[in-house]
């Protein structure tokens, strides 16, 4: 399998899109709630579409909307951009871990495709790579499809507000973390993972307890990677 | 009204462009840096350990925030996945467990 070149095919893109389905109830619910929040905050429809489809990073959009006040000042603008950077800091690590996968693809193809990088298609692409898949359509197809669904799901939320006023009642808030937990299972291979995950988990929990917010993803992930790097068999 | 729907405030557009730029920089930045680092054995092992570490660090604070109910649901998801290796069944079980736990007042 190491001899198979990284390539791309329409079939791979379609399969990537299909692999996203388990996560869609969670994504659609989250997109709808974002639409509702945007409408309540007084954004116009066009502004809502822009922030949702261009930034395309759920958690950071919600945090930025917490800060947003009409009329927007320069201070508010800088704060919105700043928290977006802080919440999305993990993208640095996610992108870094894709290097072995996408490194053989020409840069003119990978760099545009990195706009569609999310936790979801990253995770799908990575678990497929682990199984020996070398068709990077998995990454691109799942990214494009997730972006499309995310972009559309905000619309009913904007206009029909309280359709899903409380996603918790239907258990929709656990869909994404549950999907992550499920995809974590096949990544476990032995002692190296056990140690690295324990370190990551401990550092993440301590960071969360001390500073809160989204820094824990960053500190925990780096600690876990370092543990993995320096653990000799 | 139609006018209002499709208008956009200049300051808001600038904020969105700033948010888009910083997010894209982060999306592409880690990938870019890794292309310029020599991939030694240590770096390779670190990169291999990164995905699991990111997932664990993402999930655990969600459990701390969400409490016992969320924690139980994720255990249900992991258990279903270990048994069946089908992501959509695992997710369905977890969402069902969450709905049931909340209906029961947890």
UniProtKB/TrEMBL annotation, chain A:
Keywords, A to Z, come to:
Cell membrane, Membrane, Transmembrane, Transmembrane helix, Transport
Q: Which domain of life is it from?
A: Bacteria
**InterPro entries, A to Z:** Brnchd-chn_aa_trnsp_permease (IPR011606)
Q: How does it sit in the membrane?
A: Multi-pass membrane protein
> Which residues are listed as membrane-spanning?
12-39, 77-98, 136-158, 170-188, 195-217
Question: Member of which family?
Answer: Belongs to the AzlC family.
Which named protein is this?
A: Predicted branched-chain amino acid permease (Azaleucine resistance)
Q: Which organism is it from?
A: Roseibium denhamense
UniProtKB/TrEMBL annotation, chain B:
Q: What is this protein called?
A: Uncharacterized membrane protein
Q: Which Pfam families match?
A: AzlD (PF05437)
Keywords on record: Membrane, Transmembrane, Transmembrane helix
Q: What is the lineage of its organism?
A: Bacteria, Pseudomonadati, Pseudomonadota, Alphaproteobacteria, Hyphomicrobiales
Species name: Roseibium denhamense
Bilayer-crossing residues are 12-34, 54-76, 88-105
């Amino acid at each position: 399998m190491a001899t198979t070149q990284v390539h791309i095919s329409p079939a791979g893109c379609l399969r990537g899109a299909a692999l996203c389905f388990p996560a869609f109830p969670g994504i659609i619910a989250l997109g709808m709630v974002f639409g509702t929040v945007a409408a309540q905050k007084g954004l116009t429809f066009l502004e809502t579409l822009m922030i949702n489809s261009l930034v395309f990073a759920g958690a950071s959009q919600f945090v930025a909307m917490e800060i947003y006040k009409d009329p927007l000042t320069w201070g508010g603008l800088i704060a919105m951009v700043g928290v977006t950077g802080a919440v999305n800091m993990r993208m640095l690590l996610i992108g870094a871990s894709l290097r072995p996968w996408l490194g053989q693809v020409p840069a003119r193809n990978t760099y545009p495709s990195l706009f569609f990088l999310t936790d979801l298609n990253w995770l799908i692409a990575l678990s497929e790579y682990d199984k020996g898949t070398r068709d990077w359509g998995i990454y691109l197809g799942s990214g494009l499809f997730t972006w499309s669904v995310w972009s559309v799901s905000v619309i009913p939320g904007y206009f029909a507000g309280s359709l899903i006023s409380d996603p918790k009642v239907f258990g929709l808030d656990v869909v994404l973390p549950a999907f992550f937990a499920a995809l974590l299972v096949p990544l476990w291979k032995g002692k190296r993972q056990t140690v690295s995950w324990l370190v990551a988990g401990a550092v993440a929990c301590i960071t969360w307890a001390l500073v809160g917010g989204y820094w824990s993803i960053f500190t925990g992930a780096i600690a876990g990677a370092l543990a993995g790097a320096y653990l000799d068999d | 009204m139609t006018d209002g729907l499709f208008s956009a405030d200049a300051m808001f557009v600038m904020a969105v462009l700033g948010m888009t730029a910083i997010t894209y920089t982060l999306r592409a930045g880690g990938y870019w840096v890794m292309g310029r680092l020599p991939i030694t054995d240590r770096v390779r092992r670190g990169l291999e350990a990164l995905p699991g570490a990111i997932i664990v660090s993402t999930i655990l604070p969600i459990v701390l925030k969400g409490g016992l109910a969320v924690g139980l649901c994720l255990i249900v998801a992991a258990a279903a996945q270990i048994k069946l290796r089908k992501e959509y069944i695992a997710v369905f079980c977890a969402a069902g467990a969450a709905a049931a736990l909340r209906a029961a007042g947890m």
